[in-house]
Amino acid sequence: MATDVDETQRDALAERLFGAALGAYELMTVHLGDRLGYYRALAERGQLTSAELAEATGTDERYTREWLEQQAVAGILGVDDVAADAAERRYGLPAGHAEVLVERDSLAHLTPMARYGVSFAQALPAIEEAFRSGGGVAWEDFGALGREAQGDVNRPLFTSLLGSEWLPAIPDVHERLLADPPARVADVACGAGWSSIAIARAYPKASVDGLDLDEESVALASRNVAESDVAGRVTVQVRDAGDPELAGSYQLVTVFEALHDMSRPVEVLRSLRGLLAEDGAAIVMDERVADAFTAPGDEIERIMYTYSVLCCLPVGRSEQPSAATGTVMRTDTLRRYAAEAGFAEVEVLPIEHETFRFYRLHP
Ligand SMILES: C[S@@+](CC[C@H](N)C(=O)[O-])C[C@H]1O[C@@H](n2cnc3c(N)ncnc32)[C@H](O)[C@@H]1O
Hints:
Blueprint: H1 4-35, H2 38-45, H3 50-57, H4 61-73, E1 78-79, E2 91-92, H5 95-102, H6 111-133, H7 143-166, H8 171-178, E3 184-188, H9 194-202, E4 207-212, H10 215-226, E5 234-238, E6 250-256, H11 265-274, E7 276-287, H12 299-316, H13 331-340, E8 345-348, E9 356-362
Parallel strand pairs: 3-4, 3-6, 4-5, 6-7
Antiparallel strand pairs: 1-2, 7-9, 8-9
This protein binds S-adenosylmethionine (SAM).
């Protein structure tokens, strides 16, 4: 027989999951608005009727009208006259919402998280199978949506913070990147290339070699570099960072939000150590997770575990043998990997960020 306590727990969870379902479904409609160019058209043209928005985006008026009504009901868009005929109503982006929905370099830009969610949903049958078989799901199976989401999620952080706050907070690295002879930087697992571009922008003498295992990510990075103002100083190529043949001599080697995804993190750290010039520094940025397992956890811990279950652990296990790290790579785990790779010390850098922690690995 249910007790009062059971019923309170039952109702609290039911309410919580209803809210989560509502949020998840609304996020998918945000994804549609992003992909179909609805938000961009509204940001550029101001208030529009459903027919005007459909015309501007090359979409169907009836679907567009339903989406506009849904967005207004959800409080994401504003509507000028609720009582007007459906076809006459004009919808617009509230001033504060434009940055979140369309400004790709804003730290408040959040539509890439919707894209990430959709890429996870697409991969769910393969993830379910991996849970049964113990296999993995390759990063390329998360498709263009996953790659672009990853690139766009971190893009504002790199373009706004990497060259102006994060690297200047490591004084000797900052000075060396500014100095002569021009510094060389290896950006390991560069993904869409935004970190490589940001470093080259911040340090006009430096050249950056980005490398990544995933061909499509490198193709995306090549396009981003080609369209940037630093194309002459950034190269990107398809390479396995764990390849013992990897050669070079770099003043800075970076791994941004990627070590926990790698099947063989120790091999990667070992070859990364081999890339360091005598005055070289190795910097790893990874998730700012707690030092030990705790449950229930805070929002950072919760979101990192969702990434782990839905993406990073299956990706890490897509090649065998695998360290099977998962997104929740705690500082102790990194220290163990670094020691096995021959690094003498792992320093936690005093760089404050809500979701990321920065480590310097001393040879
Ligand atoms: C989560 S993404 C991070 C990309 C980018 N650094 C960023 O912050 O957006 C992880 C990346 O690691 C790359 N990767 C995984 N294992 C690798 C390896 N052994 N060598 C090079 N890249 C690797 C993947 O292809 C993917 O692009």
